[in-house]
Amino acid sequence: MSQQPLVTTTLGPVQGFWQGASARFLGIPYAKPPVGNLRFAAPEAPEAWIEPLAATAYGPTAQRRAFGDGPTIIPEPSIPGDDVLGVNVFTPNPSADAALPVLVWIHGGGFVAGSAASPWYDGAAFNRDGVVLVSLGYRLGIEGFLHLEGAPDNRGVLDWIAALRWVRDNIAAFGGDPAKVTIAGQSAGGGAVQTLMATPSAYELFRAGISVSGAVMEPQSRAAGLAVAELFTARTGLPATAAALRDLSHDDLQDLQDLLTAPEEGSAALPGLLLAPFTDGELIPEDVHVAFRDGSATPAPMMLGATHHEFNAAAEFGMSDAPVEAAVAMLDSLGLPPEGITAYLALHEGATPAQVIGQALTDTLFRATAVAIAEARASQDRPTWLYAFEWLSSAPMFGGHAFHCLDLPFAFDLLAAEGAENATGPDAPQALADAMHGAWVAFVRDLDPGPRWPRYTRDDRNTMTWDTTPRVTPDPLSPERHIWTTRRTPTT
To answer: What region does 71 belong to: left with phi over 0, alpha with psi -120 to 50, or beta?
Structure first.
């Protein structure tokens, strides 16, 4: 093998490097740096080049500061620089004759943070199993998602589409088949998959989707997007216009973002998505969940699910002394009617109020949402596979929980990656990684995770339970499904 694989793209040649059996091409620009007049503009294609572009290190990230105050579960490096609209390609065979299936990965981070340069998103295992992996960077926070006068809405979504068009036009040269592209992502990245599956201009750019613990803004109406812009002005004193913000430094813009997203005095610091894709009536014609319900979303095959305890720990640690009245108030604020609250408390009899609050947040944001999408698609006879990740970590910080992000080292078959043992503990079962990763590879390759995991239908509601011994269970989330269907629809 050449130590420096060279591939010619539509814009010019790129020089990568071999690491084991993977040829890696890192930091390839798919759009011009979003600076100056392009800071809040739709992405524009880069200028072509002649000399080989060194694609041997991850490019700059839109993340300038890591999410939260402490270390994140996923190692997510922040890399300075302006050229944040780039892709990373991992391929076992950089040859135009290979025609391998392709997985395009969209990182999470609440639409305000995250990094495609994480070692948890390495493509080595997928390459080993005959899949090309592409990860992408996109504009975050205010730059990507705040409604601004003088700028297109949903600029981060436009970035995803631009990256997918780059994949369509170039991936064959890296050994991929542009007709066999699956999009996938976790958390905000899972929400990105849901959003793209409800964005008509993206439909021709992929053939399947994997939404891992996906979340979108709720409510997601245009009115909600405009309300966030009004809140920005109220909290910062600056108009929500491209002209007012275009020349601010990254640090200044981050400070303004912190003002926007700070919890109000006296209110609970609950997860929220103020800066996220919203229904603009053009690019995204209707709320994502409405699109799934009414059938206007793409019928492309879809795999989706969540972990059992996504955000439970945050509530259990931060609200450990909460009274039962706090749990009731939380359930009411999440839209459950009195009979739904009674049923939910009975379902979790013996749990502390903090545990009930944590599970309610997890359910309403992730588990019940995944079930609702699966139900809608099954009613339309659209190929859907639902899972529930139940394996419990033994790590000191999160021991006894199947928490947010825990499933990723298993799906990527990277249990030895940097920081993975800090999340899983020392006893993570390789057999579970083999099973999960194998199902992903089969889905990307064949549009079906295999005979051991049947489709989700309204007749049996088969759901894959990812645990030490993976198993398929008919309708294991039946209680949650019945309770959360009584939930009031959020409004702006």
So the answer is: beta
Is the omega angle on the peptide bond into residue 178 within 30 degrees of 0, that is, cis? Answer: no
Domain holding 21, by residue range, is 6-484
**Positions marked catalytic:** 187, 310, 404
Whether residue 265 is predicted with pLDDT greater than 90 in this model: the reply is: no
Residue 474 main-chain phi, psi, to 5 deg: -70, 120
Residue 343's alpha-carbon distances to 340, 371, 413, 482, in angstroms, are: 5, 18, 38, 10
Answer whether residue 1 is part of any domain: no
Residue 491 inside a domain? The answer is no
Average per-residue pLDDT in the chain? 94
Q: How confident is the model at residue 266 (pLDDT cuts 50, 70, 90)?
A: very low
- Whose tokens are 């609050």? That residue is 357
Residue 104 CA, chain-centre distance (Å), reads 11
Locate 423 and state its tokens.
């999340």
pTM (predicted TM-score): 0.96
Residue-wise pLDDT tens digits, 347-367 = 999 999 999 999 999 999 999
3-state DSSP call for residue 17?
strand
The CATH code of the domain that includes 406 is 3.40.50.1820
Query: What is the distance between the alpha carbons of residues 190 and 351, in angstroms, rounded to a whole number?
Result: 29
* CA torsion through residues 430, 435, 437, 438, sign: positive
How far are the Cα atoms of 122, 381, 385 from residue 378, in angstroms, in the given order?
A: 33, 5, 10
What are the tokens at 403? 């928490």
Cα(379)–Cα(175) distance, integer angstroms: 37
